[in-house]
Amino acid sequence: MPAHARKPMHMTAPPAHAALDATLARQRAAYLAHPVPTLAERRRDLQTLQRFIRDHKEALCEAISADYGNRSRHETLLAEIFPAIDGIDHVLKHLKKWMRPQRRGVDWRNFLGARNRVIPQPLGVVGVIVPWNFPVNLSLVPLTYIFAAGNRAMVKMSENSRHLARLLIDRMPAYFPREKLQFFDETGGVGIAFSQLPFDHLLFTGSGQTGRAVMAAAAHNLCPVTLELGGKAPAIVCADFDLRTAAERILFVKFLNAGQICTSVDHAWLPEAGIAAFVEHARQIVPTRYPRLDTPDYTSIIDEAAFERLLQALDEARARGAQVISLLPGPSHDRATRKIAPHIVLDAPEDCLLLTREIFGPILPLRGYANLDTVIDSINAGPRPLAIYPFSKQARTVQLLIDRVMSGGVSVNDALFHVGQHDLPFGGVGESGMGHYHGVEGFHTFSKLRPVFYQARFSTLKLLWPPYGKLASRVLAFLTR
């Protein structure tokens, strides 16, 4: 049964669910009335989305900071506003080429004039479930590819993004009608109902635990899903790489957004002989970037639960013999602002919280190794990470790590940067996610690459119609020789 003919799982709908159902019905009707927007229409949608971002740049920064308690304005501009604006420019540049039907090769079946084509066509209505950590980036960047592919969209924001959700709900209708785009806040049970809707595609970004629930809900409608999850992404510093440079780059990514990034460096592997020097570099570098805990350049932890979880993980590691090092002078945390100072942790037990669960905060465990095989075996013993970050000047060493450690993506001699390359697909593998978007792959994810065969005036298969005689036998003998 086609997606547009399926019914939602719930039979009786409370008011919030009824609004979701009504919006989906409205958008699907609009899709069926106009299923394939032109290039000009898609370009206009993308330009409108870009205009919204530019018109509300400061308001978006303020709303996100209000949701966090304090979110560095510069981090929002760098990691959310700029990628969204720049990504739209990239798509506008390539969209005409992406929309072009692909010609496929000629073989014996179509040498008399039959043709093969692959036509990218819109899927219909796409659902997007957005996390709180980069809510502008992870809503508007997917919308770039959803609109480029000619679709309509419903977007469900996080319960931790109330100020931003209100801004989007209130102001986006002046730019897009509800039958094209509508945002929803999490008002209790909306997320579950949203994931149960019979979308034509569903994109979820968030934790693995919630991702499993979303995938299970979508499975009832056979709704295809793209899951962008997370995991314990390691940095692997090799002996030949300069430790100061590695520290500067790893620490920037680790403490960006106070570590609340799915592709952040979760922990770092270092040659055992280099750990002390790395710690000393960190003690010098971090205070120059964040002179004190209350600097507006340093972001708060999103909520009380996350704040307590991180402090508990630090306390557990300390109680079990780990060395916990705060990298800023003064208090290590402030409950009033939900800020936790950047920390390094040494000698954490293998089974402690910091080494077994995704950290998602400003805490960097350092792990020593004597042989690179130890690192490879340890990473491969766990779930496949969303990214790995090898640091080495030796191309053979880098390739060894790429070959032997599977991950969603790789940044070599830096961290995180593969995510910001508009020409590279972004996505996980295994427990870190499935599917991808960004680049042409994003356009393809939200399109149906529809194969179309155009028969020639004379069908060569006519030679094989029954009753089967000598000619058919000779043709089949030739084909199966």
Automatic annotation (TrEMBL):
Source organism: Janthinobacterium violaceinigrum
Full protein name: Aldehyde dehydrogenase
SUPFAM superfamilies with a match to the protein in the record: ALDH-like
Active-site annotation: E228, C262
PROSITE patterns: ALDEHYDE_DEHYDR_GLU
GO (cellular component) term, any one: cytoplasm
Metal-binding keyword on record: no
Molecular function, one GO term: aldehyde dehydrogenase (NAD+) activity
CDD domains named among the record's database cross-references: ALDH_CALDH_CalB
Keyword Nucleus (UniProt): no
GO biological process, one term: aldehyde metabolic process
InterPro entries registered for this protein in UniProt: Ald_DH/histidinol_DH (IPR016161), Ald_DH_C (IPR016163), Ald_DH_CS_GLU (IPR029510), Ald_DH_N (IPR016162), Aldehyde_DH_dom (IPR015590), Aldehyde_DH_NAD(P) (IPR012394)
Membership in a protein family: Belongs to the aldehyde dehydrogenase family.
Keywords from the named record: NAD, Oxidoreductase
Domain Aldehyde dehydrogenase: 21-450
